Amino acid sequence: MVDHDSIFAVPIEKLGDFTFDETVAEVFSDMVQRSIPGYSNIISTIGTLAGRYASAGSNIYDLGCSLGTATLSMRRHINVPNCKIIAVDNSPAMIERCKIHVNAYYSDTNVDVIENDILNMDIQNASVVVLNFTLQFLNPDDRQTLLERIYVGLKPKSILILSEKYSFEDKTAHELLIDLHHDFKCANGYSELEISQKRSALENILKPDTIDYHKQRLSNIGFSSVTVWFQCFNFGSMFAIK
């Protein structure tokens, strides 16, 4: 049974920055389902795309793997031999649970679960790389560097899957999409207090980019095809093909 997210349900006197600690890890599955519109569709399609683009003998990277949901989706769809999924996260609490989830089921596709900063990872011989709501938590100055390293480490005709929260230059659209997301969370049982406190906790660590900025940056790096394949409100996912 998934633990219910009530982290911000009571007033917090000293509200610090959001961290992916033990408390968050315990309720993370509930949190993302109730906070990110279309999350289940994104996860299932990550698996489908991995099944299409994974090549024999290559590495598959899930950077910022959290509990391993995208990793498991990919593993279910990969049907070529000698692939290895490398799942990386810098949160000990997330990694501990990810290992449990990965080890619960046997698969011909091996998974290495690694506790590390994704900025320290050497990306090589990759046919699929996933950043599922991960890039937005990096310092903006580090995003370009990581994406460039991913591009270099990807084999030709391979894929990067990038899911993110988006900002919008059109102020009217930006505010409306934020309101629609607010309504989405209310409909999923979050109170005004919970929404407000979580927004404040994320304010200093989650810095979203616009869709156009994402596309231009990926194109400038060298990706030949960049497309948003899913969007709901101010959340979405895109793929970039080398």
Automatic annotation (TrEMBL):
The keyword Transcription regulation does not apply. Its EC number is 2.1.3.-. This is Carboxy-S-adenosyl-L-methionine synthase. HAMAP family: Cx_SAM_synthase (MF_01589). It is an enzyme of class 2 (transferase). The keyword Isomerase does not apply. GO terms for molecular function: carboxyl- or carbamoyltransferase activity; S-adenosyl-L-methionine binding. The gene is cmoA. Belongs to the class I-like SAM-binding methyltransferase superfamily. Cx-SAM synthase family. Residues 60-156 form the Methyltransferase domain. Homodimer. Catalyzes the conversion of S-adenosyl-L-methionine (SAM) to carboxy-S-adenosyl-L-methionine (Cx-SAM).
